[in-house]
Design a protein that fits this description.
The protein is mainly alpha-helical and about 120 residues long. The chain is built from five helices and two strands. The chain is about 75% helix and about 10% strand. The C terminus is likely disordered.
Length: about 120
Amino acid sequence: MVMLEYQRNRLCDLHAAICKTFASPWRLRIVEALGEKEYTVSQLVELLGLSKSNVSQHLGTMREKGVVEYRREGGYVFYRLSNPKILIACRLMREVLLEQFERAGELSRLGVAYGKDSSN
């Protein structure tokens, strides 16, 4: 039993650490890009409009956390997502956020309507 609790806590710690990796909007954009295909740093620079040092720094963080992998081909280094489920997880979270925005919009419209009704 104690070991199970330790494992559960450890898993939560790792989950929190990986979520911190996605705390940057630029890293989320990199995930989206790499969900399409492999890219070099230079290609990501052009695609995202970030500096080479910023892209490299983000990729380094993501590589350290196991989010991206790379392969060398000739003089090029190509980056890709380490697991396609990463893109699915990020897109799922985006769907949740969009649904929250939609609900919030509906609630504020209802609030405005109730406000008008109650003032009549």
